[in-house]
Amino acid sequence: MASDIPTVNTSVDLPVNNQVYRVECSVLEKEVAIMAGRLAALLSQRFSQEISSITLPLKFLDFRYKSIFGDTPIEYWSEDCRERIVSAKVNAGQKNHLSQLIHRLNLSLPQIDMLLMAGLAEEHEGFADIFRSLHPSGLPRPTMGLLAQLTEAQYEQRNILREIISTSKNKYLSIFIEDEEQPFFTRSLCLIDGLWPWLHGIDVWPEVLSVVDYLAVMVGLDHWLEEPEIKNITQHLRQFSTFSLLLTGEHMNSAVNRAAALCRHAGVNYCLVQLNENLKKNALTLLQIHCLIRNVVPIIQLELLSSSEAEKGNSNNDVLDFTHFFAPAIFCSDNHQHYKHNYINTFDQRPIQCLQIKTLNTSSLRSIWRTLLPELAADTDQLAARYPFEPDQVQAICADVRHLCVDYRNDNSNNPTLSTISLSSVATAVRSRSGTSLAGGLQLIHPIADWSQLILPQLQLSQLRDAANRLSLQSRVLDDWKFLVGKRGARGVRMLFSGPPGTGKTLSAEVMAKALGVELLQVDLSRVVSKWVRETEKNLADVFNTAESTRAVLFFDEADALFGKRTEVSDAHDRYANLETSYLLSRLERYDGLAILATNYRQNIDTAFCRRLEFIVEFEEPGVDERLKLWQCHIPDTAPLDTDVNLSELAMLFPIVGGHIRNAAVSAAFLAAQDRRKINRQHFMISIKREYEKSGKAYREIPRR
């Protein structure tokens, strides 16, 4: 009988009025027509054609079949349909999605019949009307009973259908939705969302899946992709092996871009899935089926628990079950440890591979900036050292830079000119992006002060300049000259500023940020340190993540509150406090920017921190020469000084720090403005006395002249 079955092509010749017309149709349309013919034969057997309610349905079904196959008897299609579907010829540019579905899900003949029967309701309202007239509840869907009657001659027993529905593998990756509350053979049968349109070539993902398009930025990843571990992962992806990959980075976006880059390099399709509360068990099954039939690797962003949820220690009960997903799946996370879904349990039946994303080497960073911002090719080394960002971050910043540099002012046409792109415009773009997502407890300060405004002894100034140069030159020393290869904490600079209040610690941090062309991020310790267990660690992680994304100078004022000496463990609070200190030590060591700790009391700082610091700068109270320079610095040339003012005298008589000198200079100016006079000696004396009173020091009266 099989040899008598006509060859199935994508076009059918139909004789109409002694002329032959060629009708182009897909493999799916042919199988729908065959299912219509089979249903017509069943209804003809079960009902008398004299019944008026069956006449129109039979005519509709007969028309659907004969419009494609003409007078070919339905008996020709009684054999297994899988071979003809898989071997069907298709025209150029067309895809046999039905064959792809059968192959990827390994559908049996009964499952194919279920698929086509359920799909009839989606295909045409005429089919839906027929099912409505046959359904016990009047629904426009076929029932399991109708399918059983249609296939009884082929399968001989109805238990085959029961087994298909109840088998665990079919249950977890089912393409059907059924009403489980009804008796088995009265259950409605319909397809999962988006499946039938996809079979017709309409490639639209179900909205509930939150699938978004994402194009990986590949620039600068060549060396990384050639690493042995990465090449092994790439080969598994290329073979479409069944395994799970957990990709962890400092930032979620970095992990996502690396995952997409792996897929692009392997030549496999991928989709980005934003995991949320809508992705429950049924939606997760929906995602897996759509990924399987499309040969697509899902890249899933794991969702973090909120602080209160993490404190309770409970993750969501919804487990991300990929046990029956026989294809690669990639999960992306940052370095947090608490997620809403218990994704670890999903890997019980699947091989798992974990990959920690590391910062790209200097040559790769230079390649990224040179390729994406060729206008500053001469400054590539400086950009790579100052902003060691991921390719996707650099691409976004470069787009911002070009937007900022568009000049409409001198062009009356619709073709604006592009003004000169400079390092400062890159810094502005980085600053703009960093200011939009500041972590709690951080204050973003745009530095204004420069070296000329910093009055310090030559030793301290040299230390500050050396620290700034170390950041700019670390790519040459560490990468080109290979110093400290493989050593933890090799990158970045950590400094301690210690000394009395008002001696210039905060100003020095601002000057260094200005010299490096970055922002100053000052940590508000009152919002970072928390009484709740692990909350401080989470806040610190947010602080460091923000600082790394902005490449800003990270400034901890009154740092002994965080970096103080560890105590003997006497209760749980001491234990967790020491854990926070240990976490801070580790996190500070990994920070590859400039981190500055400032304290009034160096002896309170844990010695373990001091060992990890590249520079310790002691800020002492200024001497006479420094005080004179401070007075001159804080009194502008435009200030109307009276003839009785002698700045050298003020520097000699009053041993106060720079902060008090600044306050006294400003206060004296306001007193003079109030008196409508020039700033005289007495105004300074009053202002200086107030500064002494504020600091609790004894003031020695100076006789008037």
TrEMBL record:
Domain AAA+ ATPase: 491-623
A Pfam family the protein falls into: AAA
GO MF term list: ATP binding; ATP hydrolysis activity
SUPFAM superfamilies reported for this sequence: P-loop containing nucleoside triphosphate hydrolases (SSF52540)
Entry keyword Nucleotide-binding: yes
Keyword Nucleotide-binding included in the entry's annotation: yes
Keywords of the record: ATP-binding, Nucleotide-binding
Superkingdom, natural source: Bacteria
Family listed: Belongs to the AAA ATPase family.
Protein name (database record): AAA+ ATPase domain-containing protein
